[in-house]
Write a structure and sequence with these properties.
about 180 residues; alpha+beta; Jelly Rolls; three-stranded antiparallel beta sheet
Length: about 180
């Protein structure tokens, strides 16, 4: 049994890391509601431009230069699976940048980095770049977190997990059949 644990510890740990929602997050990801009330918390802004956040083209909130870190705002209740289109409205330039694919932005570039399970499970961090053409791509111009949102695993993750379980089952069955 100890040999089995040694042989499969590293592959199983790697599969666990690859299957975690945080490993799936990144540039150009959508934010998906997990269901229920969504609370947004302002974290920080290192931008020179003035900007606000809005969601699904709603009412703008959290002006970046007059909102204190830790301020929280409820954006309402959403059904599970609803895509939350967070947008950074840069009032200094008149540009608006969205979470999700680059096609949603005026310069056809990705302007938001989404990190699921940031710090604690269920907390998602969104950080924006606020300059047309990509700017310095440090994604620290406007940062906020929100809760009650779930990352949607990619189908490849489920296939990987299933393949791992099948392999472990096959190996344990094979081992039982070779004993006398």
């Amino acid at each position: 049994m100890l040999g089995f644990a040694r042989r499969f510890a590293a592959p199983l740990a790697l599969a666990g890391l690859l299957a975690s929602p945080a490993a799936l997050a990144g540039l150009g990801d959508d934010a998906i509601a997990g269901g229920g009330e969504i609370l947004v918390t302002f974290e920080s802004s290192e931008a020179n431009y003035n900007s606000l956040i809005l969601v699904n083209s709603g009412v703008p909130f959290f002006p970046n230069h007059s909102t204190a870190p830790g301020d929280t705002f409820s954006i309402g209740t959403f059904d599970a699976g609803t895509i939350l289109d967070f947008a950074l409205m840069v009032t200094s330039t008149g540009q608006t940048y969205h979470t999700g694919p680059a096609a949603g932005n005026p310069d056809s570039l990705i302007h938001a980095d989404v990190t699921y399970n940031f710090g604690t499970p269920g907390t998602t961090r969104v950080s924006f770049e606020d300059v047309f053409g990509g700017g310095d791509q440090d994604y620290n111009d406007y940062i906020f977190t929100f809760r009650s949102v779930t990352a949607v695993p990619e189908p490849a993750t489920n296939v990987l997990m299933l393949a791992g379980l099948v392999a472990v089952g096959w190996l344990s069955r094979r081992r039982k059949n070779t004993r006398f």
